[in-house]
Design a protein that fits this description.
- This protein is α/β, with parallel strands linked by helices and 638 residues long.
- It folds into three domains: 3-160, Beta-Lactamase (2-Layer Sandwich); 265-390, 2-Layer Sandwich (Alpha-Beta Plaits), CATH 3.30.70.270; 403-637, Alpha-Beta Barrel (TIM Barrel), CATH 3.20.20.
- It contains 21 helices and 19 strands.
- Strands 11-12-14-15-16-17-18-19 form an eight-stranded mixed sheet.
- Helix 4 (137-187) runs parallel beside helix 5 (200-235), helix 5 (200-235) packs antiparallel against helix 19 (589-603) and helix 19 (589-603) crosses helix 20 (617-626).
- The two termini are 52 Å apart.
Length: 638
């Protein structure tokens, strides 16, 4: 039983006890007063009646007439006249029922009326004695009315006391509830501080809890800083801050072979010609400043191109992954222009070339890099600031993807309306290879009788036409139906673009509420970018769906996790580390150390950690030793 309920029961019991005791004591006191008054009245009435009878000179008829008239007033239960010889000369009696007091009250609270006696005499001659007993019905009526008034008054006092007690309990309950919510937040891995209440006892408790939260937050921030340092050491080029070669190649490989089908894009290689000669001519320090300027220009273009990433492959070569098909050549030209504009004044002799290539999904990494190297060689042969392109262009793109935005919208709407959609299934397993849940990316059939297209093909179109909320809702509906059918837990990917829709969270909550049993087996996830760029919207979605039993997490995570402010307040159940983070952990100890630091940091928030895109057994073995809770990817399916 809760403390507040115990307080309420104690207050209620105290008020009821006080009410009962007050009522009983009041009725008992009034009854004693009424009995005393009746006894005095009987004695006084008997004396007065004896004086009247004494004036009748012993005439029996006159005395009986006087006594009858007195009895007929109805105030007496009995009047009796006894002669001097002990014979009864007059005896009248009768009981009158109370008009207001109920019978149970009369039986429960009896009132005794003792007889009043007085001597009747004619001068010195004794004529007898008169006995008078008054009716108690009037006293019972008076006692009943007084008891009711007392009970009502005590009841009103009790209600007023209850209201005052409610205010007092409310003042206690609010900070207690805040403390309970704070403790529950800590259990979920959220570090939330609350305002200190006015009550000294609760203030000390809250202050202690806040102090503990502050210490835990400091520990977490220290872990986050350590993880960020490991990430920079493992993934970044020290001079430019871009991804180093191994990390860039892991990102590119993960993009090309993503299970959900990343959209076609492009790859640009940028080379600084004759870097060794520049180093001899300008000096090591000046050359480092030149390379740093190139890195900043490349990074600025990455920031201006959503979905892009870049890296430094070696001393003279930079790489830029283009997220949009058909734009590689243009990006290469823009890249040279921006780099040229930011180079220091002393770098007039610097020559740049760029090679661009179309990056089709599923193209082997070696083949893609070979095409890019070929384009770069052509550009180098053409001279400084040249751009060359190698690849097939857009000939193999689906016909529907070349249509206008209006037609895209019609195709998507028709697919949603007719529910031409299905869920794929990729298992996420634990250490014993037991199923944790099925990852279920959505496939859409955009053309009747056509193939079911992966998200990489149609998601950019859905974002542009603002249809991601409806598509995500359909994916959740299909998952809930499948769970109702076979009982297997399923994960649904939600687009970050859907979070901006004002009714999206409420719509998902409504769908989950319609399937309460299946809702407890749903895993909902958004990309890491949503936590970094739309934190409040993501947290609100988490608050909407988690109370219904659904689990909420991040996918494709790891690059920015340690830099997300207030990650401890995000309300996450799990995080899936991106394939580019976990790949090659079996052969790269520094990468494994970085993953272990991420896992430790997330476990401190009571967040489960899964690894995406696991390809080979050596990576899987190291990931298990790093403490991950589950794996998914080609190795798991094999």
């Amino acid at each position: 039983m809760s403390l507040i309920r115990q307080i309420w029961l104690l207050l209620l019991g105290t008020l009821l006890l006080a009410f009962a005791a007050g009522t009983v004591i009041n009725i008992g006191s009034v009854r004693d007063t009424l009995q005393t008054q009746l006894n005095l009245k009987n004695s006084d009435n008997a004396t007065a009646l004896a004086q009247v009878l004494s004036q009748q000179k012993g005439q029996r008829d006159l005395m009986e007439l006087t006594l009858s008239a007195q009895f007929d007033t109805g105030f007496y239960r009995r009047i009796r006249l006894v002669g001097a010889d002990g014979a009864t000369l007059f005896d009248r009696s009768g009981n009158a029922a109370p008009q207001h007091a109920p019978a149970w009250f009369v039986a429960l609270v009896p009132i005794e009326s003792n007889a009043g006696l007085a001597q009747v005499a004619d001068g010195w001659r004794a004529l007898g004695s008169v006995e008078v007993i008054s009716q108690t019905s009037f006293a019972h009526d008076q006692l009943w009315r007084g008891g009711l008034q007392s009970a009502i008054a005590l009841g009103l006092v009790g209600v007023l006391a209850g209201l005052l007690a409610a205010l007092a309990v409310g003042r206690i309950q609010r900070p207690l509830e805040e403390t309970v919510r704070q403790a529950e937040s800590l259990q979920r891995g959220e570090y939330v501080s609350v305002a200190e209440p006015n009550m000294p006892e609760l203030r000390r408790l809250t202050r202690t809890m806040n102090s503990m939260v502050a210490r835990l937050r400091t520990v977490f921030e220290g872990q986050a800083a350590q993880v960020e340092s490991l990430r920079r050491q493992t993934s970044l080029d020290a001079l430019t801050g871009l991804s180093n070669r191994s990390h860039f190649m892991a990102q590119l490989n993960a993009r090309q072979h993503h299970e959900e089908g990343a959209p076609d894009g492009g790859l640009v290689l940028l080379r600084v010609l004759r870097l060794a000669e520049l180093n001899r001519r300008l000096g090591h320090a000046e050359t480092d400043r030149l390379i740093g300027s190139i890195g900043r220009a490349v990074h600025a273009l990455v920031q201006a191109t959503p979905g892009a990433f870049a890296g430094r492959l070696n001393g003279a070569d930079f790489a830029f992954s283009v997220p949009v098909a058909g734009a590689a050549r243009d990006i290469a030209r823009v890249l040279i222009e921006r780099v040229r504009a930011t180079l220091p004044a002393a770098s007039d002799g610097v020559a740049l070339v760029a090679g661009a290539v179309q990056a089709r999904r599923e193209t082997p990494l070696g083949e893609l890099m070979g095409q890019a190297d070929l384009a770069l060689a052509r550009a180098e042969a053409a001279g400084a600031d040249s751009v060359a392109h190698a690849g097939e262009g857009d000939a193999k793109r689906p016909a529907w993807s070349l249509l206008g935005e209006h037609r895209w919208s019609e195709l998507l709407q028709a697919a949603l309306r007719e529910e031409r959609a299905q869920l794929a299934s990729f298992p996420v397993v634990d250490r014993t290879l037991g199923l944790i849940h099925l990852e279920c990316p959505l496939r859409l059939q955009l053309e009747p009788q056509g193939s079911f297209e992966v998200a990489g093909d149609w998601l950019p179109l859905a974002v542009r036409t603002r249809m991601t909320p409806a598509i995500d809702a359909l994916a959740l509906q299909l998952a809930l139906r499948a769970i109702d059918s076979d009982g297997q837990p399923r994960g649904v990917n939600l687009s970050a673009a859907s979070l901006a829709d004002s009714g999206f969270a409420a719509n998902l909550r409504g769908l989950l509420a319609e399937h309460p049993a299946a809702a407890r087996k749903v895993w909902l996830e958004v990309g890491e970018s949503a936590a970094a760029e739309q934190f409040e919207l993501m947290r609100e979605l988490s608050r909407q769906v988690r109370p219904l039993g659904a689990r909420f997490g991040l996918e494709h995570a790891g690059e920015r996790l340690s830099r997300i402010e207030r990650l401890f307040e995000a309300g996450l159940d799990y995080v899936k580390l991106d394939a580019s983070i976990v790949r090659d952990t079996g052969s790269d100890p520094r990468r494994a150390e970085f993953v272990k630091g991420l896992v430790t940091m997330l476990h401190s928030l009571s967040v489960q950690v899964f690894a995406e895109g696991v390809v080979d057994a050596s990576d899987a073995r190291v990931l298990w030793t790093c403490g991950v809770d589950g794996l998914t990817g080609p190795w798991v399916r094999r």
